[in-house]
Specification:
The protein has one domain (4-290). α6 (156-165) links the parallel β3 and β4 (171-175). The radius of gyration is 19 Å and the shape is globular. The longest helix is centred in the N-terminal third of the chain and has 22 residues, at 67-88. The chain is 44% helix and 17% strand. It is built from nine helices and nine strands. The strands form two sheets. A seven-stranded mixed sheet has the order 1-9-8-2-5-3-4.
Length: 304
C-alpha cells in the first residue's frame, strides 16, 4: 500500500514555480490557472499510483471512481496551491474568507480574547492556510501568535518556493519529526500566553507508525495518529476541530466545532477521536474533491 510519505511531488520544480509566480505578478491569476491545468494533466498522466489511489478514494467518498473524477481531484489540489501562493504573499483579501457559522465564530473569539490559548485539530481537507489571512496585520486578532506542526520533509520544493516569495512568515513552525519533551513545554508556555497551535489529526507519523488508532471512516477502516489527540488533551486548553473549505463562490468557509467533554481522561480521548472523525467524515462527504490525500488512505483492500 502506498503511504503518504512515499508520495513524491509531481511536475514541480523551483524554476517552474518561480516562472508561474512571475506570470501571476504580471498577468494575474487566470493565466496561471490556465497553465496549471495543463501541468496537472501532464502530472496526472504519469502518476499512475497516485491516480489509482485518487480513484479508489473518490469511489468511496462520492460513488464515482472514474478517471475524470480523479483528474478533478488532482486539479482541485493544484488550484488550492495557487490559492496558497496568494495567501502567503498577502494577495488573498479578508473578503475571500468567512465563518460558516456566526455562533461558532463568537465562541472562538471569546476564547481568543480570554487568552486561554487554543489548540486546533485540522486536517488535509480544504486549505487550512486560508486561516493565515485572519492573523495578518490589520485584523482584530492580528495580535495572536500562531504555531503549527508540519512534516518538514514533505513537499520540500513547494515549501522552499513559499519561503522564497514570502520570507517573512509570521507562523512559528515545529517539525513533527522532532517533537520531544522540550517542544511540549515550549508549546504549553506559548498557549498559556494566549497563542494558538495547529496540528493535523488525519495523517499518521512517518517516523512512528505504531502510535495510531484504527477507526471507521466512510464505512472503511483507516488509521489516524494517536499522538496528535493525546497532545491536544495534554495541553489542557480549548480544542477546536477546523477546516477551510472552498465554496462555489470561490471564497473559503471556516468550519469549526469546539470539543466539550466532562469525561475522565481515557474516555475523553476516545470522545475526542470519535468527534473529530465524525467532523471530518461529514465534511468529506460534502467536499470529496477537497480531501487532499493521494495515497492508500484506508487499511482494507479496495477494488475499483
Amino acid at each position: 500500500m502506498l503511504k503518504w510519505y512515499e508520495v513524491k511531488e509531481q511536475a514541480a520544480g523551483h524554476k517552474r514555480l518561480m516562472l508561474l509566480w512571475y506570470i501571476y505578478k504580471i498577468a494575474g491569476k487566470k493565466p496561471v490557472q490556465f497553465i496549471v491545468f495543463f501541468v496537472t494533466l501532464f502530472a496526472f498522466t504519469g502518476a499512475w499510483q497516485i491516480r489509482k489511489c485518487s480513484q479508489k478514494f473518490q469511489k468511496i467518498a462520492s460513488g464515482n471512481g472514474s478517471l475524470i473524477r480523479a483528474f478533478k481531484h488532482f486539479l482541485s489540489y493544484s488550484y488550492s496551491l495557487i490559492d496558497t501562493m496568494e495567501i502567503f504573499t498577502d494577495n488573498f483579501g479578508i473578503k475571500n474568507i468567512y465563518f460558516a457559522d456566526e455562533n461558532d465564530k463568537q465562541t472562538l473569539y471569546k476564547d481568543f480574547f480570554a487568552k486561554k490559548g487554543v489548540c486546533f485539530l485540522c486536517s488535509h481537507l480544504g486549505n487550512i492556510n486560508a486561516m493565515r489571512t485572519f492573523f495578518k496585520s490589520g485584523t482584530e486578532i492580528d495580535w495572536i501568535k500562531v504555531n503549527m506542526f508540519l512534516e518538514v520533509n514533505q513537499c520540500k520544493i513547494f515549501k522552499n518556493f513559499l519561503s522564497k516569495i514570502a520570507p517573512d512568515n509570521p507562523i512559528n513552525v515545529y517539525p513533527v519529526e522532532n517533537i520531544d519533551l522540550t517542544t511540549s513545554i515550549d508549546i504549553k508556555e506559548r498557549l498559556n500566553n494566549g497563542e494558538i497551535i495547529f496540528i493535523a489529526g488525519d495523517r499518521t507519523s512517518a517516523h512512528n507508525s505504531d502510535t495510531v488508532f484504527t477507526a471507521e471512516f466512510l464505512e472503511h477502516k483507516a488509521n489516524f495518529p494517536e499522538g496528535a489527540f493525546r497532545f491536544a488533551l495534554m495541553m489542557d486548553v480549548p480544542v477546536y476541530f477546523i477546516a477551510c473549505t472552498k465554496e462555489k463562490t470561490g471564497k473559503y468557509a471556516i468550519r469549526l466545532k469546539k470539543f466539550v467533554s466532562d469525561a475522565k481522561r481515557r474516555e475523553k480521548l476516545a470522545e475526542l477521536q470519535n468527534e473529530y472523525i465524525k467532523f471530518l467524515e461529514d465534511l468529506t462527504k460534502n467536499y470529496p474533491l477537497q480531501f487532499y490525500h493521494f495515497y492508500d488512505f484506508f487499511c482494507d483492500k479496495i477494488c475499483l
